[in-house]
Amino acid sequence: MLKKSAALITCLMLALSLLVGCSGSDNAVGTAGNEEIEINVLSATMRLDAMVDGWEEMIAKFEEENPGVKVNLEMQEWEAIPQYLAQARMAGEQIDIIRTTGGQIRSTLAPAGALMELSEVVEPIKDRFEEGTLDVYNVGGYQWGIPYSETTVSCVYYNKTMFDELGLEEPKTLDELQHCADVIREEKGIANPWIHQGAILGYWQMFFEETYAQTSHNESIAKAEDWLSGNSSFVNDETIEAFAMIGELFERGILTKDSLNTDDTGMKALFAQQEAAMFYGGTWEYAPVLEIVGDTFEVGVFMFPEMADGLVPQGSGAADDGIAVASNCNKEHADMVVKFLEFMTRPENAQLTIGATEPILPVIKGVEAVDMPCAEELMSFVPQNIMYIDWMLPAEINDALGNAIAGVASGEVTPEQAAQSVQD
Question: How many angstroms separate the CA atoms of 260 and 201, rounded?
């Protein structure tokens, strides 16, 4: 293990010219005399004490392996990190490593020039990550960070016990989904075969991402970047059809207008009480749902179905938290910054940090996943994942999109009007 890590560090050291070059300095990388080296880590606040304990233990191990190196961990609310970084840069304060949301890394910090590009640094350790999880931290062919949490995936949860009793299979297509909904309504008297947490605006954006992925022929992210940049209009056949597909779920009675006023608590309650047989969400819903359902029935998962012949479903998801290197990092000690990245991505060290969250789908191979019945099936969805589209969108567009989708679902606006409202 030590030999393997040393070889990886040697490869990583070859990439140091990238970090040093960005500093505009020709100084050699390394330490001078007996000077203590400090690495400053700025982290978004951690939601669990176990996560903080894990980070502190991982840092202590790194300091023990690298005598003369001190790692400082400071935490701020994630929303405050861009301003904090800007102030630190103006004050000449050193920040080396940043831990924050993937959306902030992509949409705010990288475009603002606050981060180092890490493609060459990540290359030697890329095999440590589960397939597809690095991609969402890559923008325009450049790697601006690495995932460092569990990855999430979207899916449809369903009452597997009820499906089995009624002889229903997991639906792969819209017609198969229609059949399931019709049988459930007729045989069980359930008014809402599929309930949605439509009172929460952000879940409509996820719905749109599912349909737009299909209507754009799996080029939704590239095409979103195109209309965000002003090179194309949001009003086009593909976005209009994506809105129409959401409307069709309501027209067919698979979803009803009850979903427009249902929040996440109400949705889970209806599902647990078997007054709904399906709901849409992400992996973060899984543990709470199992706790509510208990032994009442078995919970299964399937991907959002194919909405028309020849279309290819894609789920949405990503590793919510990531690691990046600040552009104002100490370039003279870039070797230690790189060593720290290598160290923290070793499976045994990631177990201390990522493992503390009890992940269903850890991004780093070798980190122990929570033993849940559908974990393996959920992991099989990951390679088909695309990044959350709301990670790319300014808040105003996110709100406009969510409201437009809800309008289509309620029948108050047409798909064409919805698309135009977002463009406006």
Answer: 10
Q: What is the DSSP letter of 313?
A: -
Distance between CA 8 and CA 21 in Å, rounded? 21
Task: Name the β-bridge partners of 194.
Answer: 278
Pairwise pLDDT comparison (25 vs 417), residue with the higher score: 417
If you write DSSP's letter for every residue of 230-284 in order, what string do you get?
TSS-S-SHHHHHHHHHHHHHHHTTSS-GGGGG--HHHHHHHHHTTSEEEEEEEGG
pLDDT for 111 beyond 80? yes
Q: Are 142 and 268 in contact (CB under 8 A)?
A: no
Q: Which whole-number Å values give the CA distances from 35 to 88, 106, 137, 299, in the listed order?
A: 23, 35, 34, 57
Q: Which of 250, 227, 270 is nearest to 392 (CA)?
A: 227
Query: Which candidate, 272, 241, 276, 331, places its Cα nearest to that of 19?
Result: 331
Measured in degrees and rounded to the nearest 5, phi and psi for residue 196 equal: -125, 145
Per-residue pLDDT tens digits for 320-344: 899 999 998 998 999 999 999 999 9
Structure-model confidence comparison of residues 244 and 108, the more confident one: 244
- Among 4-13, 85-94, 131-140, the least confident range: 4-13
Average pLDDT over residues 167-194: 98
Handedness of CA 285, 288, 293, 295 (dihedral sign): positive
In terms of Cα–Cα distance, which of 44, 40, 136 is closest to 82?
44
Residue 256 in tokens: 């009803």
Hey, what are 78's tokens? 């994630």
Q: How confident is the model at residue 135 (pLDDT cuts 50, 70, 90)?
A: confident
Q: What are the pLDDT digits (tens) for 362-392?
A: 999 999 998 889 988 998 888 888 888 888 8
Partners of 285 in beta bridges = none
φ and ψ at 371, to 5 degrees?
-80, 95
Q: Which of 170, 187, 173 is nearest to 300 (CA)?
A: 170
- Compute CA distances 146 → 122, 135, 218, whole Å: 8, 9, 23
**pTM for the complete prediction?**
0.79
CA angle, 68 as apex, 63 and 70 as ends, to 5°? 50
The three-point CA angle 357-360-363 to 5° equals: 80
